[in-house]
Amino acid sequence: FPTGPGKSGGAWARLTVFLVLHRRWTVPLRQRGAREPGLIRQQEAPLMKHSNIKCIYGNEPYLMEREERRFLTACQQRAGEAPEQTVFEKDVPVATVVEAFQASSLFGGSGLVIWKDCPLLPIKHGGRSRSKLTTEETWFLAQMENMPETNGLLFITKLPKETSKLDTGCVFFKELSKLADVAECHLVDNKSV
Length: 193
Prior knowledge:
By secondary structure, this protein is α/β, with parallel strands linked by helices. The protein has helices at residues 9-26, 61-79, 94-102, 135-145, 171-179; strands at 39-42, 53-58, 84-88, 111-116, 152-158, 181-186. Helix content is 34%, strand content 18%. Mean pLDDT is 77; it is low at 19-37 and 43-47.
């Protein structure tokens, strides 16, 4: 910030902060991510994210389906063909899911694993979030980092109630959000606008 005779560094700093904050709060909701009657929050993406891993959670079915379609389209464009889809529910062992997304086709095809209501992504019920990874979670994250580029992995967690929240404070979610694009899909109400 400029300093010297007649220039106050503090005034320039305050003006800059004001302009940054004013710009942030005057951007229309449409430009911040919500294009439909709902709100999708995209978490900031560091450089090490994998474009073939995505986590979608929330309680707005239309927005969740739209994010799923976008991810499927991106996987299809990346592979040049429609990927073979494998869908797992929450009671499937972690090793089975890893085996599915690590598999590669003899003919060069791509695969997409969709894991609905993954038990590693818990719903918040109160209390403190876990602060340490289990050995199974650590192994799963290591396998995700080594996933072939032609394959995709999609986590879909439909929250049971409007008041339910995913436990975003648990260490597994924090580590997953470093690797994957995360989309939070909720209805817009008076509190979220």
